[in-house]
Amino acid sequence: PGTRYTTIGSWLDEVIQPATNIALRDRSATNLMIGDLCPSNQSGHFRMPYDEYTLQLVMGVLDPVQAGAPPPCTAVPAGAGVLEMILTEKF
């Protein structure tokens, strides 16, 4: 019953500051931070749409029955892929 909300954020977000502003403050909200779930993954705002760990978290939230095991936690250095994304997207 009712609507449930989930946020997935990063403590290293380059856009939303402070990172605590990512969270929804409601009983129906689940707030996930990549750095809490996978400390070696330091993806930020710009990398999250391309990050396999984050994408698997999203799929697990959208379809928990099919989600299966938690996504594998792999190391992602802070800022990884940001320059390439900017060049590709021609920002």
Describe the structure in your own words:
By secondary structure, the chain is an alpha+beta fold. Helices cover 30% and strands 11% of the residues. It has four helices and two strands. A two-stranded parallel ribbon has the order 1-2. The protein is globular. The mean pLDDT is 89.
What are its keywords?
4 helices; alpha+beta; 2 strands; globular; two-stranded parallel sheet; 91 residues
Brief synopsis:
This protein has 91 residues and is of the alpha+beta class. The protein has helices at 34-37, 52-62, 64-67, 82-89, and strands spanning 5-9, 29-33. The chain contains four helices and two strands, in the order E-E-H-H-H-H.
Low-confidence runs of at least 5 consecutive residues: none
Radius of gyration from the CA trace? 14 Å
Cα shape: globular
Strand order of the largest sheet: 1-2
Order of helices and strands: EEHHHH
Count of distinct strands:
2
Annotate the secondary structure layout:
Elements: E1 5-9, E2 29-33, H1 34-37, H2 52-62, H3 64-67, H4 82-89
Parallel strand pairs: 1-2
